[in-house]
From TrEMBL:
GO biological process, one term: urate catabolic process
Entries under InterPro entries matching the protein: Uricase, Uricase_CS
Organism classification: Bacteria, Bacillati, Actinomycetota, Actinomycetes, Micrococcales
Pfam (any one): Uricase
Pathways per UniProt: Purine metabolism; urate degradation; (S)-allantoin from urate: step 1/3
EC number, as in UniProt: 1.7.3.3
Protein name: Uricase
SUPFAM superfamilies noted in UniProt: Tetrahydrobiopterin biosynthesis enzymes-like
Amino-acid positions noted as binding O2 in the UniProt annotation, renumbered to this chain: N244
Natural source organism: Rudaeicoccus suwonensis
NCBIfam families: urate_oxi (TIGR03383)
Gene Ontology molecular function, alphabetical: urate oxidase activity
Presence of keyword Oxidoreductase: yes
Keyword Oxidoreductase annotated: yes
Amino acid sequence: MSYVLGHNQYGKAEIHVVRVFRDDASAPHDLVDYNVSVSLTGDFADAHITGDQAKVLTTDACKNTVNSFAKEAGEAVREPESFGLALANHFVDDVPQVSGARIIIEAFPWQRAHGHPHAFVKNGDYVRTATVTKNAAGTTVVSGLKELTVLKTTDSEFHGFYQDRYTTLQPTNDRIMATAVTAQWAHEGVDVQWAESFAAVKDAITSSFAKAYSYALQATLWEMGTAVLDAASDVSEIRFSCPNKHHFVLDLSPFGVENNCEVHHADDRPYGLIEATIKRSEDVDATGAYDPGQAW
Ligand SMILES: O=c1[nH]c(=O)c2[nH]c(=O)[nH]c2[nH]1
């Protein structure tokens, strides 16, 4: 029997590194808090097929590289995208048998506490993400965020939907709309002001969620996506994955209590899951820039 080794990749996952910027003794400290995962591709068939590990850069060395680069990479460490670029460039340019690197970073935001120079409060509103991929096809950067929970108490309808014999949902002209936004957006190049771009995209997402009258979560994704493309010229497409966090109006009539969309049951599961990509044009094909898990 002869078999074929298909796609393979390896690296160290979830290296949790916190870097404090304290170079100037008189200046307030800053920090970044990253969870970094490294995946390498390249000439690693022997490691699987013959057991020869001569070309394997250990995952332990990957971890050490990330930790050391948290100092060595200087100012690039301040944004997850530029840190990911520094790491991807190192692995592909400096390790001969590595032909591709994908760096995935979760960045946990901290806010200065009461203007204090070295005390911080973890801001649990969202997690920022970055995926940097460098391979023979080039270098791509995808920025993102997840766990950004937003809710509006009105200006949301859902009606006119298809009816079949299993359809029992009542149409509504007034409901709560809530979701926890996961979004990833691909950049057209790698020469981007990452902090400014992220702030513009996040602001476009939350402001369009607030402003747009919603006819469905699907329509809200379109509004948020087009607002992002208007706000950030470096973004070629944005992909949303948004659970519909259902809030059901409770029937309080058995208790003689009127309920005018005031008291709700916040349902946990199941939830609608609405996902869409909004692209600058049909020509955009950023699929290779995203981490598909094992769907390589
Ligand atoms: O915004 C919505 N989109 C749907 O597709 C859907 N389906 C459903 O039951 N409720 C909703 N709400």
